Each structure stands twice: as C-alpha cells, then as structure tokens.
Amino acid sequence: MLSVKIAPRLVIRLWAVCVLLAPAAGAAAAPPSLPAATSAFLAKFVDSDGNVNYAAIKRNPLELKGLLRRVETFDAAAAKGPDREAFYLNAYNLLVIGEVVARYPLESVQKVPGFFDKNLVSVAGEKLTLNDLEAQKLRQPYADPRVHFALVCGAKGCPRLSRAAYVGNQLDAQLTIQARKVLQDPVFVRVEAGARKVQLSQIFKWYEADFKASGKTGLPYVNQFRDAKQIPATYAVDYYAYDWALNSQK
After folding, report:
1. CA pair distance 143, 209, nearest whole angstrom
2. Which residues neighbour 203 within 8 Å (Cβ) at sequence distance 6 or greater?
C-alpha cells in the first residue's frame, strides 16, 4: 500500500523536473561557431579552383553580413593563441570578400584606390587597413610564412582560397596542408624542366624577409612542401608577373 501512495508523487516530481530541464518551446538553437559558419559560407560560394561567386553573394548578402558582424565584435583578446591566429586568417579572407562585394562588379582590387592600405575594415573592435591586419595581427606576432598561402587578396595570382575555415585546434595541420596544396600547384609554382628553371610567385620576392626568418627561402622553402616533386637546386629561379584579375567565378 505504501508504494501505491508514493508512486503518484514520484511521477509528479519527475514530470516537474523534466519540464524545468526541457528547452522552452520555440527556443532558438545556439548559432554555429564562427569557423563553422565561415566554412559553410565558403563551401557555398567558393569553387574547387578557389574562385568566389561574388555575383551570388551580392544578390543575397545576408550570410556575409552576419559573418562580418561577428568578425567586428569578436573578442580577440580573450581567444587563445591558435584560436586568435585562425580568427584573423578567416577575418582577412572574409573582409576581402566583403570589400569586393561592396564594389561588385569589379575587374580587380587594384582598381580600388587604397583597397589594402587606406580603406578601413572593422575587426575585433578595431579599425584597420587590410595591410595592417596582415602585418600586425598575423605576420609580426606569428612569424610563420605559411600564412602567405592562407591569405587570399581577391586576385587570380593569390593562392587558391580554401573552401574551409581555419580552426585553432587544427591550425598547424591546416597551414601545412594548405602550403602543400599551393606549392605543388603547377599554376602557382611553374616548373620548366626543359629549360631547367622555375618561376615562383612574387609573394616570395615581396615577403623574402619573412621566409628568410623561418630559415629557408626560395627553392629550399618550396621543396619542403613538395613531397616527391622536388625541384633541383640547380634550376634557375625567376618570378612571374602577379595576376591581379579578380578571383571571381565566370
């Protein structure tokens, strides 16, 4: 008889606990992390060649605007080292896309006065130029030349834009994978076996000090990411002209 009297009370208590713990009806799910949301955006608007569908983003800009708002308000000071570096890498690529979309249709970012060194963008509570973002938040604090293969400045001459965002706890591996992809890309590193020469991107010329600081530059730097496709050290090295045409999908 005792168990019969207690059972209804237990049922009521369990029901009350379930009601208290259950999410409110219609409550919104937590938004995806910024890297996850960035990956979804890139996968949607960037093709396998790293070209961006600027026209489609221009027609439906809400997703990009939402990401740029999160970039603007991100608390970089509270982020750990790899998370902060990944944030600034993703922020740079998103901000370049945002600046292009704001002016699209556009033939080249070079047609925009001050695109890199005068126009200010909002990132983590600061107003910076794209050049300042690259130098002050990535090149200087981390001294890792691999960032030059992850940053994409809206031009065909850049490394191919990754379709996935950079993530703090995967960043070192992601940067190595990206460097291998870029430095084994025959469009980016142009080997002419018959002429016994290789043409490198002017990135290696512009940022030579960054590569030297890592201990290797030129061919020695390139070869460490080329696996079995090593370029003989006797090959002559030259630099091809940078292609500033917009990295847009046709």
Report:
1. 10
2. 148
